[in-house]
Amino acid sequence: MSAAVELRQVSRVYGSGPTEVHALREVDLSVRSGELVAVMGPSGSGKSTLLTIAGTLEEPTTGDVVIAGQKLARLSRHDRARLRRRSIGYVFQNYNLLAGLTAVENVALPLELDGVKVKVARAAAMEVLAKLDLTEQATRYPDELSGGESQRVAIARAVVGERRLLLADEPTGALDSLSGEVVMRMLRLASHDGVAGVVVTHDAQMASWADRVVFLRDGRVVDQTVPGPGLDSILTPGATA
Ligand SMILES: Nc1ncnc2c1ncn2[C@@H]1O[C@H](COP(=O)(O)OP(=O)(O)OP(=O)(O)O)[C@@H](O)[C@H]1O
C-alpha cells in the first residue's frame, strides 16, 4: 500500500542571497495510513514548514511530495485544491475558526464546500462534536468558547468527513494537559480509522501518543524513534524550544 503522504528529498529555501534561509534540507519522510507521527525540534528547525509542505499549502523548492501515490507536481491546480479540501484536515496554532459561524457551522463547512447537503453535513458535524464532548457548545460562536473548546472545534473540523491525512501544528500548545490529552486521543482514534496523522509538538508527553517521533534540527531529520520511556532522554537540553 502506498504511503498516505511521502516527502522525497524535500528542500525549502526562503529568500535569496544574504537573507536566504534553508528551512528544510533533503527531508525524506513517509507516513502510512493509520500511522501517527510526531515532529519535534527546536524553534526554527522547520517543523511548521514540513507540515505546510506535507499539507500541499506550500511547494518545496526541490524534491517531491507524493500523496496517496500521486505526485503533487503532476496534478492540476483544480485537482490539488480538491485533494486539499477533501482529504486533508488541518489544525493550526490559531485555530482559524470563522467568527460569524457557530461551532457546528464551522465544523460542517468543509463538507458543505464540497457539495454535501447542509442537513447531512450538519449531522456529521454534530456527531464529531459529540465525540469531542462539545454537544452543548455546538450553537455557540467562537468568541463564546474557551481556548480549549475552540481547539477541539478546530480538531472536529479537521476530522469531519473522509479525511485521509490530518496535520496539526502544536495542537496542545494552548491547552492544559488534560484537554491536550483529549485532543491527542481524538487524533489517535482517527488513526485507528486509517487516517494518517502528523503532529508538531514540543511536549514529550503528547509525542508519546505517536507511533513514531521524528526530530528536526536545522531543517534536517536528525533522528527517528518509537516513543517510550526513553523519549525524555533523547530530548537533550535545547532540543525542545
Ligand atoms: N515565509 C517565510 N519566509 C522566510 N523565512 C521563513 C518563512 N517561513 C519560515 N521561515 C524560516 O524558516 C525556518 C523554519 O521555520 P519554521 O516555522 O518551519 O520552524 P519551526 O520549527 O516550526 O519553528 P517554531 O517551533 O518556532 O514554530 C526559520 O528560520 C524561519 O524563520
From TrEMBL:
GO terms for molecular function: ATP binding. Keywords: ATP-binding, Nucleotide-binding, Transport. Residues 5-241 form the ABC transporter domain. InterPro entries: AAA+_ATPase, ABC_transporter-like_ATP-bd, ABC_transporter-like_CS, ABC_transpr_LolD-like, MacB-like_ATP-bd, P-loop_NTPase. Coiled coil: none annotated. It comes from the Bacteria. This is ABC transporter ATP-binding protein. The lineage of its organism: Bacteria, Bacillati, Actinomycetota, Actinomycetes, Micromonosporales.
